[in-house]
Amino acid sequence: MSACMQNDRSAVKRIIFALPALYALAITPVFSYPEYQEFVEKHSHRTANCAMCHVNENGPVGEENGQLSALTADEFKRLSRARGALEPGQDVDSPILNKFGNEIIKTIGKKKFVELKSDPAALAGALGNKSDLDEDGISDATEYLDGTDPLNKFHGDPIKLFSINLSRYKMHVVLTIVAVLALNYGLINLIKAISLTQSMPKRHE
Ligand SMILES: [Ca+2]
Ligand SMILES: [Ca+2]
Questions:
Q1: CA-to-CA distance for 57 and 49, rounded, in angstroms?
Q2: In a domain, 160, yes or no
Q3: Does the residue 204 lie in any domain?
Q4: CB contact at 8 A, 62 and 68
Q5: 142 CA from centroid of ligand 1 (Å)
Q6: Are 37 and 66 contained in the same domain?
Q7: Domain containing 40: what range?
Q8: How many CA atoms are closer than 13 Å to the CA of 103, on its beta-carbon side?
Q9: Model pLDDT for residues 94-135, shown as the tens digit of each residue
């Protein structure tokens, strides 16, 4: 069998495997949830785009990475499973959602997420303060309210990050201050000693 025929067969197989997922996608409307984005921008006075929860900053519709038209057959299956995760606690791994987006569905379930569209502020309370995916010390829920990136440890409300880092590294700060004071003290005494030496009368032999 020629390589060309083998390639054709494997392409046909891929299409056949993808058919159920494509059908599921076709009968499931593509939801977008601009209510959350609008709330975040209004509440935080920061610009928020789809990248807060999605892989692609332009959202799920399109042909780029993390968008529906670029998904493989396996990714369609993962998408279908994620869309069926109506209740919390399920293992969600949607290829169009980033880690935070998947965490939201895992924590509260798709059903609750859709319900909260009418009250986007309540999403923070529903998420709770346990999860801090980027480990910057600010919970995902707070970063949602603040309009900062819950997957970037260097992106957070500056005052909160400063306060958290000061608390985390307070021993380093104290030791640095002590070291600087000790160095200054030593330098001052050294200068005094040199001055004294120079001001002492020279012995005539
Ligand atoms: Ca965080
Ligand atoms: Ca962050």
A1: 6
A2: no
A3: no
A4: yes
A5: 8
A6: yes
A7: 3-155
A8: 22
A9: 999 999 999 999 999 999 999 999 999 999 999 999 999 999
